[in-house]
Write a structure and sequence with these properties.
about 200 residues, alpha+beta, Aminopeptidase, eight-stranded mixed sheet, 6 helices, 8 strands, about 30% strand
Length: about 200
């Protein structure tokens, strides 16, 4: 796929492809953030994400790498000051006349509130629009997940309505609010639009 693999950065925030050697760090961060993330995680009993082993991570990396080779996903690790801080995946990529995708993400609670995820999403969206060749990126978020909704609202994603019982989350089918951006919405790039407000809100 054009534009992949790719490593991106804006200030202390970075995106880089998943690596097998991240397994131990991924496991530690996931276990430490289990309660923080559980209400928002897709239910997948076949590969529980919070057990102590690294098996789920290794399986995920293999799946994500295969999907990346097929042009169906861009799976990144989010870093903050070089340290593992979460994940961001551009997935469900559709080509042809749609050229659309969905973004999903999670962040370590210890760095939440520092502008890490808005910056990471802005980097990923710009890369999708200007390097990969996508036209539309969606974020589908549970109404109750105010922190995640703030991420896309800060970036100017457009709210487009509710998708009823969209995903199986935390044991039940949950409604999600659909947010979206198209390439026409950010002709000068999402990073540049976010940069000015981020410098004011998150001075270093």
């Amino acid at each position: 796929m054009r534009g992949w693999p790719a490593s991106l950065a804006e200030g202390p925030v970075g995106l880089r492809p998943l690596r097998l050697r991240d397994a131990s760090m991924w496991r530690d961060v996931r276990i430490r953030n289990a309660e923080w993330l559980r209400p928002w995680e897709p239910t997948n009993p076949e590969t529980p994400l919070f057990r102590s082993g690294v098996g789920p991570y290794l399986g995920m990396v293999q799946t994500m790498r295969r999907e990346a080779r097929q042009g169906l996903a861009l799976p990144w690790v989010v870093t903050y000051d070089g340290d593992f801080a979460g994940q961001l995946t551009i997935g469900a990529i559709v080509w042809g006349s749609a050229r659309s995708a969905q973004v999903g993400y999670w962040v370590d609670k210890t760095v939440a509130g520092r502008g890490v995820m808005p910056t990471a999403v802005a980097l990923a969206v710009d890369h999708c629009f200007f390097n990969v060749g996508l036209h539309r990126v969606e974020a589908n978020i549970r109404p109750e997940n105010t922190a995640s909704r703030r991420v896309v609202e800060k970036l100017g994603f457009r709210e487009e309505g509710v998708r009823r019982r969209h995903l199986h989350i935390d044991g039940a089918w949950r409604d999600h609010i659909c947010y979206a951006l198209t390439a026409e919405d950010v002709p000068g790039g999402l990073v540049s639009r976010w940069r000015a407000s981020a410098r004011q809100a998150f001075p270093r």
